Amino acid sequence: MAVRKVVQAGHPALKTKNKEITDFSSPLFKKLIKDLKDTMYKTDLVGIAAPQIAENYAVFITHPRQTVHRKVVNVDELRVYINPKITSHSKKRSIVFEGCGSVISANLFGPVSRPNKIRIEAFGEKGNRFSLVADGLLARVIQHELDHLTGMEFVQKVSDYSKIFDKKYYYKNIRNSKEQREASRITKIEYKKL
């Protein structure tokens, strides 16, 4: 197991330009993917981007699932996104409270408005190109992690700064609210090899 430290807001790796992956068989790349997986699972995150472990490459992973801190109605499998690009998104948006492994020491959660549904194209772990249409929590995690690849942190997208809460308040009053759960429900996952 290669669990890495999740860097916190202010770390230069979170604002550095990320390089695209060109060699999918590189041992360094394979180690990076393993480190991302191990770190995500150990820290109970549902997604993590390479810059969050101070590696400036255009790669992130997602795995919306039940964790110690999160109850989800729908889950998804582990997915790897290399050199990802969102190619379309819905006009309809929803506001969901987000947190982040890179502000975990501050324990902040805030409301972020994002498109409900997105279509992303990327390469998988073995270099296979794919497209994915997703909604709910999966679409949100993808957008959140893709923001990390552009140097953006969720606190920059908070829609109402008067509603930033600490972890205790969020867990007690918001995490399992009907609104939060409904907006996070995954109803669409369409995976297609390109």
Sum this structure up briefly.
This protein is α+β, with helices and mostly antiparallel strands and 194 residues long. The protein has helices at 27-42, 136-149, 167-173, 178-184, and strands spanning 47-49, 59-62, 79-89, 93-98, 108-115, 117-123, 129-135, 165-166, 189-193. The termini are far apart.
Walkthrough of the structure:
This protein is α+β, with helices and mostly antiparallel strands and 194 residues long. The chain has a single domain (12-193), classed as Peptide deformylase (Peptide Deformylase, Alpha-Beta Complex), CATH 3.90.45. The protein has helices spanning 27-42, 136-149, 167-173, 178-184; strands spanning 47-49, 59-62, 79-89, 93-98, 108-115, 117-123, 129-135, 165-166, 189-193. The strands form 2 sheets. Strands 1-2-3-6-7-9 form a 6-stranded antiparallel β-sheet, sandwiched between helices. Strand 6 (117-123) and strand 7 (129-135) form a beta hairpin. The protein is globular, with a radius of gyration of 16 Å.
What portion of residues is helical? 10-25%
Number of domains: 1
- Largest sheet, spatial ordering of strands: 1-2-3-6-7-9
Q: SS-based structural class?
A: alpha+beta
CATH superfamily: Peptide deformylase
CATH topology: Peptide Deformylase
Cα radius of gyration in angstroms: 16 Å
Number of helices: 4
Q: Mind telling me which CATH architecture this is?
A: Alpha-Beta Complex
Structure summary, number of beta strands: 9
Q: Give the SSE string.
A: HEEEEEEEHEHHE
- Detail the poorly predicted runs: none
Shape estimate: globular
Average pLDDT, all residues: 94
Strand content: 25-35%
First-to-last CA distance: 32 Å
CATH class: Alpha Beta
Major sheet details: 6 strands, antiparallel
